[in-house]
Amino acid sequence: MSVKRIADLRKKIRAGNLDGMIISHLDHVRYLCGYTGTNGLLVIGPRSADFFTDFRYGDQAKKQVKGASVHIASKGDLIAVLKEYPGFNINNMKYGFSEEYLNVAGHKKLQEILPDAVFIGADKVLSDMGWVKDTVELSHIKKAVEISDLAFERILQIIAPGVRERELAAELEYQMMMLGSEKPAFETIVASGYRSAMPHGVASDKKVKKGDFITFDFGATVNGYVSDMTRTVVVGKATPRQKKIYDIVLRAQLAGIKKVRAGLTGKDVDAVCRKIITRAGYGKNFGHGTGHGIGYFIHLGPRVSFQSEDKLKVNNVITIEPGIYLSGWGGVRIEDDVVVTKKGCKVLNKAEKKLLEL
């Protein structure tokens, strides 16, 4: 699989009029050649692929890396090692790199060490890498979703007034690890009461109170592939206003799921969710996109937003996650991971979506 992925990327590199590509982001590296360590650099040349790491990861790299020759650098600075890489000894060789993930200092060092090579920002070459999943990738994502579903079910048992958001986040992450997750897919969001109006309200020391909404947004990781789910619950009995807001978001989310199918754009799906929330009078309180792709990154394409022209393809895995956020009061978001099919989609999450009053 690694050999095919590298070969597919090499075709895109050539189509971009480049001779090769320097892959510096570790998630990209893992996707392409299987390496899971924390120091590594992959160079894809016209006819070869070379992986560089340092002594600490020598045995690991030799065992994990597929489709590329492994080189163990004597020093930890892998960019400096490229000075000895034969592929750069030819004048005016054009190599792409990701401007998003290689910082200015790294780019400057490349130019200083290899003055005869030409380095070009080439994020477009990597832009849709990993969007369409194969059977193995889908199995990893499905397992990650199963883990997050079950962990959520377990966390419901300890929600009560007085417990801190950080405690809930820690327990949620612990349960996912015990169920087989490598690590959290991202920093776990647990936002209660007025804080649930913060779409990215990561867990704080705030204590949960009776009557609070609590929004949980979290995910598991299996073999490098992630899940991403959100559920909102109420501590105690829900008020009429809480039920109203929750119902609007749930209707929007279900409508978005129903709309998904291959061939539509992300904008098409977003419009369905946004229309329901806007007609209910809360359009200004839904300030983010409806969803995004997931895979070996937590945020891949295709994007599902009011601006997205990304076309959905069979075996994309995307999130559907509309929300309403009322500053100073609270908010609701509901999110599932779905696999795009030719005529619709398959929802992977099984966790309850009716409003839970705990």
How is this structure best described in words?
The chain is α+β, with helices and mostly antiparallel strands. It has 2 domains: 125 residues, 3-Layer(aba) Sandwich (Creatine Amidinohydrolase, Chain A, domain 1); 213 residues, Creatine Amidinohydrolase, CATH 3.90.230. Helix content is 32%, strand content 21%. The strands form 6 sheets. It has a 6-stranded mixed beta sheet, sandwiched between helices. The chain has a 3-stranded antiparallel beta sheet with strand order 7-8-11, with helices on one face. It has a 3-stranded antiparallel beta sheet with strand order 14-17-18. Strand 2 and strand 3 form a beta hairpin. The protein is elongated. The N and C termini lie far apart (46 Å). The relative contact order is 0.11. The mean pLDDT is 95.
Summarize the structure.
The protein is α+β, with helices and mostly antiparallel strands.
Structural class: alpha+beta
Query: What is the fold named in CATH at topology level of the largest domain?
Result: Creatine Amidinohydrolase
Number of domains: 2
Give the mean pLDDT. Answer: 95
Spatial arrangement of strands, main beta sheet: 4-3-2-1-5-6
Number of strands: 18
Overall CATH class of the largest domain: Alpha Beta
Q: Which spans have pLDDT < 50 for at least 5 consecutive residues?
A: none
CATH architecture of the largest domain: Alpha-Beta Complex
Shape: elongated
User: Major sheet: size, sense and barrel closure?
Assistant: 6 strands, mixed
Could you tell me the radius of gyration in angstroms?
Answer: 23 Å
Terminal CA distance reads 46 Å
Number of DSSP helices?
10
Strand content range: 15-25%
What is the N-to-C order of secondary-structure elements (H for helix, E for strand)? HEHEEHEHEHEHHHEEEEEHHEEEEEEE
Annotated CATH homologous superfamily of the largest domain: Creatinase/methionine aminopeptidase superfamily
Helix content: 25-40%
